[in-house]
Design brief:
alpha+beta; DNA polymerase, domain 1; hpI Integrase, Chain A; 15 helices; 47% helix; 14% strand; elongated
Length: 369
């Protein structure tokens, strides 16, 4: 609303030069708000003002939430932008994962006013994604971001209400492992820049963000150690290099220096792609799974469509490393130090046995005679 105020009634009803309708000025939570009454009739405008004051009073008593004019204009995209800025300020690791899951949320909810997002609309989104073949876990990653963005906005008083966003059951949580023939086939199918990265993760069980973020200042070739200054637990972690892991790091040291436009360049990251940090490699990973035959097809429930299901995940490398370390007789406390698990309960989730382990154990079982 522009122009100068030409008429004032009781310091609450205002009329601007460029408008015939009355504007009502009121205070909520100590802040002035101005809203058009939608009428040029003063008596009707007064009734509007009285109704709005009743709503303000009900809001103060907790009987009904009153949405301010400012909150009514906020879009979901603005909430998501603010959430991303908050993550950056807090230097949250794996920010790219949040941004990736946020893409589908922006596509569906982004332009909407935050006040128009209801539990019913979120359920419609969930249903559409399920029909499209998305897993409950994937859907939950997106809706959790949406819910967190809303809660942050409410804490900062940008909006007044957070819609109820249901969380789906994830009873189909994957518990996969890589067997030796599978890891060999996968590495052969991967592009060069991902091969050593995958080998290292398979052996050490580090988190993807730690492997991708590994830089040469963290590596001490003289002492043959790697020290992560701040891991997920918040404490530094040191890995002693030996055997195949040491061979990988030495190979990466040679690959760190290369020519770019005729000039020698030294990569900052241990695992890199033409000198640049490796970002999201989901597409290359999935392509390699197809080439290695580590997929299967299944029908989408309630549809005639068929979808490709990847038999293994990158995260399964971490789970496999934990299992392999224990199988080789490494003490649990030492294995946890290598993989970076801070608590026993979390490590127990990764060190479960595979079906092959069970089969081998059953072969060794005999009935005494």
């Amino acid at each position: 609303m522009s122009g100068f105020v030409s008429d004032i009634v009781d310091r609450s009803l205002l009329r601007y030069e460029d408008s015939t309708n009355w504007t009502f000025s009121y205070y909520q939570d100590g802040k002035e708000h101005r809203v058009s009454t939608g009428t040029a009739n003063q008596k009707v405008a007064r009734r509007f003002a009285k109704g709005r004051l009743d709503e303000v009073s009900a809001d103060r008593q907790g009987l009904k939430t009153l949405i301010t004019p400012t909150a009514a204009r906020v879009t979901v995209n603005q909430l998501l932008d603010a959430y991303l800025e908050d993550l950056k300020l807090r230097e949250v690791k794996s920010l790219y994962k949040t941004e990736r899951h946020m893409v589908v949320i922006r596509e569906y909810f982004g332009p909407m006013r935050a006040t128009s997002v209801t539990a019913e609309k979120v359920d419609m989104y969930i249903t559409a994604k399920q029909k499209g073949g998305k897993s409950n876990g994937t859907i939950n990653r997106g809706t959790t971001i949406l819910a967190t963005a809303f809660r942050l906005a409410r804490e900062r008083r940008r909006i007044t209400e957070v819609p109820h966003i249901r969380k789906l059951s994830e009873t189909n949580v994957r518990q996969g492992f890589f067997e030796q023939d599978q890891i060999d086939a996968l590495i052969a199918a991967l592009p060069d820049y991902l091969q050593d990265l995958t080998r290292f993760t398979y052996l050490c069980g580090w988190r993807k963000s730690e492997v991708v973020g590994l830089t040469w200042p963290m590596v001490n070739m003289a002492a043959e150690t790697i020290t992560i200054p701040t891991s997920k637990s918040g404490r530094p972690r040191t890995l002693d290099l030996d055997g195949e892991v040491l061979a990988i790091i030495k190979r990466r040291e040679k690959a760190a220096t290369f020519e770019h436009h005729g000039e020698p360049v030294v990569a900052t990251h241990v695992f890199h792609r033409n000198g640049a940090p490796i970002g999201d490699f989901k597409k290359a990973w999935h392509t390699a799974l197809v080439k290695a035959g580590l997929i299967h097809k299944e029908k989408v429930p309630g549809s005639t469509k068929v979808r490709i299901v990847h038999d293994v995940l990158f995260h399964d490398l971490r789970r496999t490393a934990a299992r392999n370390l224990l199988a080789k007789g490494v003490r649990e406390t030492v294995a946890m130090k290598i993989t970076g698990h801070a608590t026993r309960s979390m490590f127990d989730r990764y060190s479960i046995v595979s079906s092959d382990d069970v089969k081998n154990a059953m072969k060794a079982v005999t009935v005494g005679r």
